[in-house]
DNA sequence: CGGCAGATTGACAACGGTCAATTTACGTGG
DNA sequence: CCACGTAAATTGACCGTTGTCAATCTGCCG
């Protein structure tokens, strides 16, 4: 159940973030200024273990630094990019969270993914040189800007980086297969349970609590992602609460019985 | 509507296959022998315009030939690879068609894609070094075997090939986003219409008729892919026929009113 | 404190699922 | 070439889950 929505292969070093690293990370995060661009550095980034440079050594990470020139702040509700925008860079999420939204001519649109700290955005733009969806910040967020042609050039020189980029692309494919499975074969209860467990697992991989979640997205956005109406999401969460599986307080959800959720 | 299921960016040279190319292609196809391995060559392959070497020049294609050692016949119903198999190669579909199936512990499984001649299989295996799904031949088929580590090595030397591989991976991501949109926001009629139009567009890109389709998969497989039951697929096709949109004769479907299908 | 977006809950309807009965298509062997 | 057996497809009747519409409640921010 929990891996239907599997977002990303869990990092080999899931030894979490503690003490100094978190502080350092938060310092960066607490200088929010919309649209600011600043020098970014992988070498001393708290996310380096689970981000782009996951399987690189120090020397390699220093080379990666040369192509990651800066980072941007995106305020809640603002777009990092929009469908149709020219594709130039991919983005490593340094702090905050995003949703991606695919739209269709007739006006219908759907949330195609949620992205948490350490995950990578923008891969959809590579094939056509234009982004295929909107990426909207769910809270004030910071992203590292990685110009893709520079990354490609470096990939031609560094086997380890090339491998990482290929794995990143492939794991996005596998993640989406999981969502397809969820949408095509699970009922409403199972979808919501899978969603909660998926967020939980991703929080855990980042060293945060996997039992206390803060859902930054609305019920409507969850529903859109899961292919159901917001009322059904709300009803399902309420029922889970009545049954003692979770405790819901608005956007805060505590998972009280992970095993039972997994068995749904 | 038609691009919900968009499988692959339409090839720049959609000038189709004619005369000699098709004959040559069919010759290859008519030497089916299960599990045979033979020398493959991109340079004189009928699929070269829409396959791996799409944007390569002759010299580059010759270099690509050095990593594509052979091709394999897979009989209808047999697996090219199975979930959990060690990942070593990706596969270019030379003739025939495949379905990919993702499974889950509790026994439920879902068709995650259909692959036609010229399309590429196996990208799901890159991220974990193991395949994430089964690939099953829907008819006797032939695939070119492309050892991925050799392809990666060549990508480090050839910018154009590197770009092609990245685009291929990215377009698989975009394709799956389209399926997610379909599964989450369309009703049964719209899903079936989108499915037919998608197959039609892909046939057209390969120089085949886009009005006369031969659906090699069963109603159950279509239903699995579209997240609905086989009875609903069957009923929907029957109704489309009653309304004069299509003509159904078992696995043969003629699209009589493409515009109306698109407007559903 | 007021205004508003977001969330919850209820009543009812409808779309698609389930179960079952036939019919059709296909591959195998006589 | 036809007969048979099995898998696939079609169609109908009925039911349940989820969507729709509406009322109400909660929480946040100016």
TrEMBL record, chains A, B:
<keyword id="KW-0238">DNA-binding</keyword>
<dbReference type="Pfam" id="PF00027">
    <property type="entry name" value="cNMP_binding"/>
</dbReference>
<dbReference type="Pfam" id="PF13545">
    <property type="entry name" value="HTH_Crp_2"/>
</dbReference>
<dbReference type="InterPro" id="IPR018490">
    <property type="entry name" value="cNMP-bd_dom_sf"/>
</dbReference>
<dbReference type="InterPro" id="IPR012318">
    <property type="entry name" value="HTH_CRP"/>
</dbReference>
<dbReference type="InterPro" id="IPR000595">
    <property type="entry name" value="cNMP-bd_dom"/>
</dbReference>
<dbReference type="InterPro" id="IPR050397">
    <property type="entry name" value="Env_Response_Regulators"/>
</dbReference>
<dbReference type="InterPro" id="IPR036390">
    <property type="entry name" value="WH_DNA-bd_sf"/>
</dbReference>
<protein>
    <submittedName>
        <fullName>Fumarate/nitrate reduction transcriptional regulator Fnr</fullName>
    </submittedName>
</protein>
<keyword id="KW-0805">Transcription regulation</keyword>
<dbReference type="InterPro" id="IPR036388">
    <property type="entry name" value="WH-like_DNA-bd_sf"/>
</dbReference>
<feature type="domain" description="HTH crp-type">
    <location>
        <begin position="186"/>
        <end position="259"/>
    </location>
</feature>
<keyword id="KW-0804">Transcription</keyword>
<dbReference type="InterPro" id="IPR014710">
    <property type="entry name" value="RmlC-like_jellyroll"/>
</dbReference>
<feature type="domain" description="Cyclic nucleotide-binding">
    <location>
        <begin position="52"/>
        <end position="122"/>
    </location>
</feature>
